[in-house]
Write a structure and sequence with these properties.
single chain, 104 residues
Length: 104
Amino acid sequence: MTDPTPTPRGASSTTADLLREPLVWLLVALTAGLVVIRAHHTRVGLAIIAGAVAAAALLRLALSPRAAGLLVVRTRGFDVAALAAMAGGLAALAVLVPFPPGTG
């Protein structure tokens, strides 16, 4: 039986499957946040990372376990609570911690 989902022209099915994986997009956003932090914009970078983790929590809440892919670790409630706690902690870190001048 063939896969009913068409793949984009020139893309292998592995690439198409990878782009449908929510964890890949989380890692892309985490990398973007780290690049921004490296550019001496710590608060903005932490906000990007916190937003990415919060989005992962919402995706884990909304998607089926099969569609959520590698975001599934434990039960849905535990995964959402853990991701939301991490997002909240990162957001609090971005807002509350005094960073040296020129790095925030």
